[in-house]
Amino acid sequence: MWRNVRLWWQTPQLHAPGEDARRVTWLELFYDLVFVVVISRLAHHLAGHPDARSLGEFLLLFVPVWWVWLSVAYYNERFETYDLSFRAVTFFQMLAVAGMAATAEYGLGKTATGFALSYAFARALITWMWWRAGRHNPGVRPVTDVYVRGFSASIVLWTVAAFLTGPLALILKGVGLLIDLVTPLLTLADQPRVFPAPARKLPERFGLFVIIVLGESLVGVVNGLAEVETLGPVTVLRFVLGLLLGFGLWWVYFDYIGRREPDSHNRWRFLAWSYLHLPLVVGITLIGAMVEHAVAVEGPAEPGVRWLLAGGFALFYLACMGLEFTLEPEKELLFTARQLAPLRLLTAGVALTLPLFLTSLSGLVLGLIFLHLLHAGLGVRAWFASGNVGRTDMH
Questions:
Q1: Cβ neighbours of residue 50 under 8 Å, at least 6 residues apart?
Q2: Where are the domains of the chain?
Q3: What's the pTM?
C-alpha cells in the first residue's frame, strides 16, 4: 500500500542530463487551453478600444499572463512528475488562470482586485513548487532559494495592490512584475551547474504557445465577421486579407525559428530566447485584435487601429530578428542571422511608415502582406535547403 502511495504522490526529482526528451503531455496541452481564453479576452477588449491607454492596459495585463505560463513551462522542464500531485497542482493553476481570464477585460478597473489576487495565487502555487523541488533536491537550492525569495516578494506586492486603487496600486504591481522578471537573471551564474541538462521539450512548448496566440488571432478575425450586420465586399476583403496576414505570421515564425532549437548551452542566449517570445506574441496579438476590429467595424479605420496594426507587425519582425541570434547553428544554413537582420529591420521600419501613406485599412493590410512575401519566399528556400521538405516528423 505504501509503495502505491509513493507512486501516486511522487516527490519532484531533477531530470538528469542525457534523459530522453519527452513530448508535450496531454495535461500540458489541456492546461494551455486556459490561456486561449484569457488572451482572447484581452485581445477582444483592445479590439473594442484601439487607443494608447488601452494598449498600456493590455501590456500591463498581458505580461503577467505570459509570465504565469512561462514559469510553469520552465518548472515542468526540470521537475515534471506523472502522479496525482502534479495533476492536482495543475488543476489549481488552471483555476488561477481561469480567474485571471474572468477578470482580464477590466483587470485594471472594476475587476482589478480579482485579477491581482488570481495572479498572486498562480504565483504562490509555482513558488511553492520551486520550494518543494529545492527541499527534495538540495543541489538545486542555489537557484530555487533565489526564486522563492524573489517571487515571494512579488506575491506580497500584488496581494497588497489588490486592495488599493490609483497610481499606488499600479506602482506596486509594476515593481512586483519587475521583480518576477529580474529574479531569474540573478541565478544565471549557478544554472549551468544546477541545471546541466539542455532543453528537453521547451521548444515544442513555445511553438505550441505561439500556435495558441495565432489561433486566438484567427478566432478574432472570424468573430469580427460574425458581428457584422450587413456583409459587404469591403468586409469580406478585410476578412480574407486578415486571415492571409495571420497565415504569413505562422509561415515566417516556423520556417525561421519554430523548427530550430535554442542555444541551451549559452545561458544568456537561452534566456534571451525565452524572453524575446514575449514581444513576439504581443505583436501577434496586436495584429489579431486590430484585424478583428477592422472586420467588425464598417467604414474607414481609426488612426489608432492602423498604427497598432503596423506596430504589432513591426514588433513581430524585430522579435524574430532577435530570436534568430539565440538559435543553435544549422549545418546547412542558407541565411545567417547576421545576414537577415538588416532585412528584418527594414521590414519593421517600412511597416511603421505605411500608416502615413495608406489611410485605407485594406490597403495597409495588403501592404503588410507584401512585406510578408519576401520573408516567406526566403523562408521556403531555407526550409528546402535544410532538408526538411518531405519529412513527416516536423511539427
A1: 289, 290, 293, 302, 304, 305, 308
A2: 25-194, 202-385
A3: 0.89
